[in-house]
Amino acid sequence: xxxxxxxxNNAKTISSTEETAINGNxxxxxxxxxxxxxxxxxxxxxxxxxxxxxxGEKITTTLTxxxxxxxxxxxxxxxxxxxxxxxxxxxxxxxxLKTEVTKDDGWIPLSVLTTFKRLxxxxxxxxxxxxxxxxxxxxxxxxxxxxxxxxxxxxxTLPNSQAELELALRNRTVYVxxxxxxxxxxxxxxxxxxxxxxxxxxxxxxxxxxxKDFGGAAFVVFSTEEKAREFIEKSKETPIKYxxxxxxxxxxxxxxxxxxxxEAATGxxxxxxxxxxxxxxxxxxxxxxxxxxxEKLNNENLPGALxxxxxxxxxxxxxxxxxxxxxxxxxPWIDFNKGDAEAWVRLNEAxxxxxxxxxxxxxxxxxxxxxxxxxxxRVVEGDEETQFWKEANEKRAAExxxxxxxxGGNKRGGFGKRNNRRGxxxxxxxxxxxxxxxxDEGQSTTSKKxxxxxxx
Length: 456
Fold this sequence. Notes:
The chain is of the alpha+beta class. It has helices spanning 72-85, 88-91, 95-100, 110-113, 117-122, 126-133, 162-169, 187-194, 225-237, 253-265, 272-299, 318-325, 353-363, 382-407, 421-433, 445-451, and strands at 4-5, 12-23, 26-36, 42-52, 58-67, 108-109, 141-143, 149-152, 173-177, 200-207, 214-222, 240-241, 247-252, 306-310, 333-335, 342-346, 369-370, 373-374, 376-379. Helix 11 crosses helix 14.
């Protein structure tokens, strides 16, 4: 299969012609070329070289014109939207797309992408989409030979975590302020405005703390660190103006946060922007903690230690499941809530699932009956096992961060005078549940505490 890979150059040649005419001793060569620029406009360059072979005189005339094709606006929006879907910022957090890319060597059918509302609002025509993507200059995308699928270029490695992504984006993210605080400043306008300074990955509009109206500033993620620094240097040399004439100021994201921290330390009264900055910093800290939890959990994965049960009875509980497995393994972790149709049994030792399941089935004369109903059991392996651990760990990491934030001793957290003994028991019960896993319905408080599953 021959795949179409989008060019990584700043501009991409889409056509070039050369014509030569001889008139006596004069040879005239005309060269015409068309290139698509990072902002998706079309540059047409015409060069005319005249050479008089008799006296050796050579005259060269070059004409250059930049125009926009009739479909360039639509193409630009299509490219921008799909590159956002498959870009670092979205892919790190988009569970659906992360699952899709594991199914077919990274390829995602256009029939899937065109179900997304933003792309759907632009077009659902496959030919229009692929024709637009061929004009992309980011190098992020590949189109399959049949032009029915796209994928992220295999050479563009995806960050493993939110923390790794933030580290990668740190020197490519620019804080820009000075925009008019009016409703007519839209995301679409900002994207179009910043594309004149080079390829960008995303724009985040800053909102005012209370009203949620645009606050006149934005975080812009450029495709490279060089492009980000070029924008900052250009804004220092010659003021960059928005379409209404407003002068803009730019700084790296880290420099912006340092400045805000210094202003807070000097006792400056916090403005709405300060509150928003603290809110964003808090989110950044929580995301970092979640990434740390996730990294630790990923290192604890046990291969060959996962069993799937299907066809669970409505009356089944985790305790019933554990009764079947406890004689053959150290207390397993059961991913199951009462009423679920399926359950996952996580063992405490690697590569023991097959042996343990064989013993459980042998004890039941070839069957596994839970709550008076025979269930279907199997060992989970391969990509399905990898995907299970990935999703389970992401959920557990988020829950651990949430618990740490709740009980970690911040000004309104922890345990004060209003927290009585019952509250303390509730905290311990939540810890026994580990990561928010629900207990069986209809159990008393004491029963819930006793029946909480044991973390591996």
